[in-house]
């Protein structure tokens, strides 16, 4: 054999071995990356319902809440004490509730060992009250934002937003619901007894390492943290006994990176009545509703006497829902979870039929848009730029409507959240949006290859120095800088210069 021939054989053998090792490694990662709890949950724990936050009304009519950010411990599993953070308790927070037109103030006290913020996700309010990265609440400090509720009834939520640490702070347990009511929600014959036939459903994925949370990211998980099981309202393997024919579930995806595709184990249809910012025009009958981190959906499901059904998150096995097989597998899109078991009592209270019409939408249709903006989503930054605290990326004029076209061609899933506004989805890849995207939205999921055109109106007030955020709500991406800032100004006014560092809470100085 010639020397060349021998060398070639050795080279070919080495190549084959390397290829086999890499192939084996990939196969191991591929199979190990799929998680399912379907059929494996015991549903042995009664679902906890976050308490309604107490409030008092001051002489001028302001409703005042108190939120204390605190460290604690919670026994998610018997005998295992997990270190946690929470509002007014060990994990998560109470449900705040206010009416349209009401003035509210929230007295926040941060007893944690580090600075954080509290952001009112979905709320229309002045930028200085928004609780973004410019309104840091120092360790041991307090902050009392105030605003007047001026938007339709909706299921909103609150969570920290400190730049670079949002994923960790939410994961430790800082999140809660903020429900808004109005004349329409009072009038409509929908299930509305909180904790009885109107249930908050805060879904998070979680992983344990011994007694503690495992917050690590696995190899190939470019979306961020993905847990191996789910919990609702901080309850693992939860069940809830229900005593009414119609049950309203206020679904909130409070996970840091995971996208769910909710439905029921027996594929029964349900009525979608609301999206992020409130009611749809009319109920839509669906079998699935997909929610990426930060999104909400209000659904109403019909129960029969004595039966059980499971709220499940299904594999998102189609290109439309989650792009290609590779992204789906490593982004959690192939995973499935048994989330919550509903157990109907042997006698059920009759419920009124659902109204056929819910409300007139208050979101703009884009007709009078004065400006079109474009946002290209990349993990390395939006429109090619990483978030900078002292840079205003977009300046919008108070009282105007704009269209924002958001595109994801980044080869991985992202979503897009805009502070202060509820927008209308005009188009998804050039088509009319499906029913679940026809209501008021503040967060939308964009799998790779998606372009969405949104219409939003900026009602102010103007504050050229204090920016609102727009960002990917996959919190790992947001922390890494997939975020930009916009200010609302009066016509002809220029953007100011926001503070470079993490600011002190500006609201604190005003009263
Ligand atoms: Cu992202």
From TrEMBL:
Bilayer-spanning residue ranges: 7-30
Domain of life the protein comes from: Bacteria
GO molecular function, one term: copper ion binding
Coiled coil: none
Plastocyanin-like domain sequence ranges: 71-183, 376-490
Keyword annotations from UniProtKB, A to Z: Membrane, Metal-binding, Oxidoreductase, Transmembrane, Transmembrane helix
Similarity remark: Belongs to the multicopper oxidase family.
Protein name (Swiss-Prot/TrEMBL): Copper oxidase
